[in-house]
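Journal club side-thread
Mid-discussion, someone asked how the predicted structure for our own chain would compare to the paper's figures. Pasting it here so we can look after the session.
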Amino acid sequence: MLIPREFFLQLGGFDERLETGEDYEFCQRACAAGADIVNNPQLRVVHHDFPRTLRQFIRREAWHGRGDLRSLRTFLQSKVALGASAFLVAHALILTGLFLPGMLSLLPLGLLLLILLLAASTWKKYRYAPWHSRFVNGGLFYAYYLGRSASLLYLLQRRSGRTPRLA
């Protein structure tokens, strides 16, 4: 992120109270103050501690997802948090359809919701990519939403008084 120091200080810098998403929140304030956010693909970004395994990726997304759960407002404004909620609902429908007698009709509904969520996410992000790449990224979106929905479960556990643990 490149920004004049004076403007950064005028906006109050990053909100240090935020566990995650402080850069996104800062950009929202900058836009509200009249800044234009421009993505320059020629600039290279290095992320330290980039996940090297699927488990690390899911854990990182679970941590990132906690930023969307600061308040009901941030939750409702986050397409990702809403997508993670749909992910959980789809799995609840699938499991209910599989394991509760007389509820088999919920199985196709849950599968449809899950497929639509993954397809819409993949289409939005990779609509210009080759078809085989879209299928692979659909699988990665499954892991992405698995991590993001884990942060929702983390919040529910914390609110219920249980000690949450992200594996």
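Post-session note: The mean pLDDT is 89.
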